[in-house]
Amino acid sequence: MRVDCEGCAGCCIDWRPVSPVSLDHERRGPRAPLDDTYNLVPLTRDEVRNFVEAGLGDVLTPRLWEVPSGEGVEIDGVEVATIGGNPAFFVGMRKPPKPVAPFGLERTWLRACAFLDPETLQCRIHDTELYPNECAEYPGHNLTLGQETECGRVEASYGGERLLDDTPPTDQRGLLLGPHALGAKLFVHPDPTRLDGVVDRLRTRSLTLADRAEFVGVAVGSRPGSTEVDDERARNARTRTLETASWAGELVDEWSEALTTLGAAANGAPHPDDVEVSRGAPETPGWDAIHVDN
């Protein structure tokens, strides 16, 4: 499997506002995400824990799903998908609006992963222990399951070749399906009553740090292969997340305040270094350095 990521980052960016076709692959069928985040990367329990221990718990966010009436548990007037009667969820990384220029476009306001450098379109945590398996192995999971890739969608809309070799790797670690995902990548919240108001805020992109920390704590406290949650581990992770104020979390607020309109030109946006690097974001090497290394 080989991909050409330079000038793309389609898997890291919500490019729906500039796409010539509808990108609704996440929202087909009866179980649609309650949030409007595009291509949320599901993290494993150990990855969530690592983010918390690295002081980056405030950049994590949950995903829950709506189901037809009678198939889940009702929270804030919405039927939420469950396992064993309690809400099921993923944990991923937040996507604030950023001034980015993918696919040869001019700088445009689009939602992008908090860890994406808007200038180079490279990941700030690539080649670190925090880099998620889901990202490292993309689009391998899609290829293994016979699903369309973001590389292919970008090719179809903007031309060029992004997916250079469609042979999926044989040593994938993050492809957790069915029972193997339970407690390891798909988590179960033990008490729906603690989520009153949270579903409303999730749907309106107004989750609080306390809301997000609640799910982070449950994920860290989860036991693989089980719906059980270790209360002490969950409490410690929740507390540590609530005490976090990382560069990645702060830039979400900064970019959100600078946003004009999603899909609009971002010519007057602050320079990414002033928003991100000045707060402690690791710099990225640029593509020239990557090509030299290769």
Mean pLDDT comes to: 92
Helix count from the secondary structure assignment: 10
| Helix vs. strand class | alpha+beta
Task: Work out the number of β strands.
Answer: 13
Strand-residue proportion: 5-15%
Distance between the termini: 16 Å
**Low-confidence blocks of residues:** none
Helicity level:
25-40%
Largest sheet: 4 strands, antiparallel
Number of domains: 1
**Envelope shape:** globular
Radius of gyration: 19 Å
N-to-C SSE string, H for helix and E for strand = EEEHEEEEEEEEHHHEEHHHHHH
InterPro entries: DUF7531 (IPR055953)
Organism: Haloferax marinum
Pfam families: DUF7531
Protein name: YkgJ family cysteine cluster protein
Describe the structure.
Residues 267-294 are annotated as: Disordered. This is YkgJ family cysteine cluster protein. With 294 residues, the protein is an alpha+beta fold. It has one domain. The chain is 28% helix and 14% strand. The strands form 5 sheets. Strands 4, 8, 9 and 13 form a 4-stranded antiparallel β-sheet that branches. The protein has a 3-stranded antiparallel β-sheet with strand order 2-11-10. It has a two-stranded antiparallel ribbon with strand order 1-12. β6 (73-75) and β7 form a beta hairpin. The longest helix is centred in the C-terminal third of the chain and has 13 residues, at 209-221. The protein starts with a strand and ends with a helix. The model has no long low-confidence stretch (mean pLDDT 92).
